[in-house]
Amino acid sequence: MTETCEYDTKVVRYFIIAAVIWAVAGMAIGVLLAAQLYWPALNFDSPYIQFGRLRPLHTSGVIFGFVVNILMGTSLYIVQRTGQTPLFNKSLSWMVFWGWQLILILALITLPLGFTSSKEYAELEWPIDILITVVWVLYAVLFFGTVGARKVSHIFVANWFFGAFIIVVAMIFIVNNLALPVSMWKSYSIYAGAQDAIVQWWWGHNAVGFLLTAGVIGMNYYFIPKVAQRPIYSYRLSIIHFWGLVGFYTWAGTHHLIYSSVPVWVQNIGIIMSLILWVPSWAGAYNSAMTLLSNKEKLKKDYIMLFFFSAILYYCLATFEGPLLAIRWFNMVAHNTEWIIGHVHSGALGWVAMSAIAVFYYFIPRLWGREELWSVRLLKWHFWFAHIGVALYAIALWVAGIGEGYMWLTQSDNGSLSYSFVEAMDFKAPWLFLRFVGGAFFVVGLLMMVFNLYKTVASEVTSAAMAGAKQ
């Protein structure tokens, strides 16, 4: 058989195209939201584009549109290549693709209309939740069925991470979204009070831990060695990385509930597990960094490798900030401030998006049989636009958040607050503007990538054609 007969890449292409579209759309909405925070008049007095309705559309578009599409696409490609077997069921792969796009379209319609459960990263109402569960189960059957049909005994480490991402997300999504419907587009959670908060942050933090972290790590463990043209630095370390995340990450979410009515022992579990997570996270980062550094000459001039390397550095930063937030004195200053938004986006833009950008640049030309990028110069420009964007965004919100937290806590001698709410807002206003500028830089860089990749794919010169010309 030829490679095109053995491996189904058509559905992978569709997933990757969808991921690019949702990346641009989701982050563009984010820039609009950043602008609205500085210029509230940009709400235009419309209920459909005001912050409260667009914000969940932004998070859902980025998490479920951009990230899930790229993880589904790359996982289905990687499981075929590493197992040396075609997809378990080709028809099922298309059911998963179109089912997931239907979910995203429903989110695009219902969230601006105000249909929401109001739970962080789980705002979609119960009919869509049921559809998500069905499609996710089909995806799990497709992935694990392909793993089971593999023609090699070994299961490559990337598939370990993808498997964990599929299983854990299914478990925490179903438990968190248990609700009692009262109408077609309204339901209420079966949990209440502190129990609801615990379950919600079990979901919220592990959606980050196993979707934005474990899934992306699985993708990177395949593509980083490919780009570096070197094997993984330490296969044993990658397994330690895996079990460390699986063992400790699921317990860390309650560090978001410090100083709340949740029992102190539950808070302490979140604190301890968050601090322990430093070890497997940085061990994994070291493993990926050393894989790239094993080909230093290529790293010096290959901007795709540099995107991956930057993503690893931001992964180190984000996994330092999370445990830092679990320390009570810092949590008291930083939690519920703009610092949290800066932390989330240093991970989301610096780690997740830069990893995905590197994969797009490396994977898309090969997926369409192209020999090289249309413009390396445009790739370099994108590299610097992305880095300027993330730096401006994160630094602005770190400063705004710490300053905001300090102003909220500062008291005069008689015990009254030293700063009013308006004074705190005035302090952070210029930093919110800088955050908007940073986001705009990042989205402009994405548009450069889209244009570059479109011109690459539109090129009539394929790898096979160029190989024939060389012969």
Automatic annotation (TrEMBL):
Tell me if Cytoplasm is a UniProt keyword of this record.
Answer: no
Q: In which pathway does it act?
A: Energy metabolism; oxidative phosphorylation
Cytochrome oxidase subunit I profile domain sequence ranges: 14-471
The subcellular location is: Cell membrane
- The EC number(s) given in the record are 7.1.1.9
The prosthetic group or cofactor this protein requires is: heme b; Cu(2+)
Provide the transmembrane region boundaries.
12-39, 59-79, 91-114, 126-145, 157-180, 200-223, 235-252, 264-283, 303-320, 340-364, 384-409, 429-454
**InterPro entries per the record?**
Cyt_c_oxase-like_su1_dom, Cyt_c_oxase-like_su1_sf, Cyt_C_Oxase_1, Cyt_c_Oxase_su1_BS, Cyt_c_oxidase_cbb3_su1
Tell me a Gene Ontology molecular-function term this record carries: oxidoreductase activity
Catalytic activity, as annotated: 4 Fe(II)-[cytochrome c] + O2 + 8 H(+)(in) = 4 Fe(III)-[cytochrome c] + 2 H2O + 4 H(+)(out)
Q: Answer yes or no on keyword Magnesium.
A: no
Q: How does it sit in the membrane?
A: Multi-pass membrane protein
PANTHER family attached to this UniProt entry: CYTOCHROME C OXIDASE SUBUNIT 1, CYTOCHROME C OXIDASE SUBUNIT 1 HOMOLOG, BACTEROID
Q: Which family does it belong to?
A: Belongs to the heme-copper respiratory oxidase family.
Which NCBIfam families would you find in this protein's record? ccoN
Identification of the protein by name: cytochrome-c oxidase
Its source organism is: Sinobacterium norvegicum
